[in-house]
Amino acid sequence: MAIIDWDQFNENFQYYDKEIISEVIYIFVNEYNNRISGLQKNIDEKNYTSLAFNAHSFKSVIGNYMAPKAYELTRKLEELAKNNSEEEINEIFPELKSATRELLFELKNYLQDLEK
Known about the structure:
CATH class: Mainly Alpha
Strand content: under 5%
Number of helices: 5
Structural class: mainly alpha
Largest sheet: none
Shape: elongated
Radius of gyration: 15 Å
């Protein structure tokens, strides 16, 4: 099952050429590891103010790709960080990493198709 809502994705990007779409996806791909490790660092340091900020930023980026599960998990992480909900943060973060890895995989496959 796709993590990206491809109908919505195609509708949102219908007026952009392949180069722009590729560039937007490459930015996500290239920033992914730093974003995830930054969130993990915030969690490890119990820096919930930074975690809320970084989760919000990541949520905004994910919103571009019409990936509702990853978006919702990032929204929850942001909310939990604002409430300093340590236990729930530690439960949801692995789910978020899994969902965003799936998103990353789908986007990389899409890039390969764009470049054909």
